[in-house]
Amino acid sequence: MSCVCLFGDSVGKGVIYDSAQRRYQLIRENAAALYSRVSGVVVKNYASFGCTLGKGWRILRRHLEELAHCDRVILEFGGNDCDFDWAAVAADPRGDHQPKTPLHEFEAGYAALVEEVRAQGGRPVLLNLPPIHAPRYCAWISRGLDGERILEFLGEVERIYRWQEMYSLAVCRVAMRESAQLIDIRSAFLAERDYASLLCEDGIHPNKDGQALISQTILSASRW
């Protein structure tokens, strides 16, 4: 039976924000589960909520022996790497704040991760980042903080969209440089008439419909 390993963050795990219950939760009908059910491919989902590339390295090292036995190793990182300590930003908007993983470190580290997957006999497939909804996300990160000071740091609301997009483009560059397959889930969202309707209240996590779109995109792009 075909098998795929998945390493990534909450998007890969299938975590959504439930506005009614006011909490994050894992949905059963997530992209990995839907893909597995339709394709018949077993998905070993090692994605983790809040996972950065650094944590992803640590998780992947625990499963190195499995990589050669999977048809593909899907990698989905970047959404947490580009995030900031927003409380620190609000406290000092003119300070020198760095994201969890600076862009040049993220790109170099991701390339090294792809090479490690190959060295272990795995065949890497990269997913770029789904787009965020900047106004909704800015309101989300400003909860309990001084939103005006966060906006002072950003310069304008849409800068947070462009910042996150730089990490998605870095994923694309890594895939191109490493000759790895890229599945362009970002374009699938942007092609929708109202992509914001596919995102949760927080403006960053795909909702149930967004997870379904990710599954459909992977199914359409699968060559294994």
Structure description:
It is globular and about 55 Å long. The chain starts with a strand and ends with a helix. The chain is of the alpha/beta class. Strands 4-1-5-6-7 form a five-stranded parallel sheet, sandwiched between helices. Strands 2-3 form a two-stranded antiparallel ribbon. The chain has helices at residues 10-13, 31-39, 53-61, 64-67, 86-91, 103-119, 134-141, 147-154, 159-177, 185-190, 208-221, and strands at 3-8, 15-18, 23-26, 42-45, 72-76, 124-127, 181-183. The chain is 46% helix and 13% strand.
Low-confidence stretches: none
Largest sheet: number of strands, sense, barrel closure: 5 strands, parallel
Q: Indicate the percent of residues in helices.
A: 40-55%
Structural class: alpha/beta
Provide the spatial order of strands within the biggest beta sheet: 4-1-5-6-7
The strand count comes to 7
C-alpha-based Rg, rounded: 17 Å
Strand content: 5-15%
Shape: globular
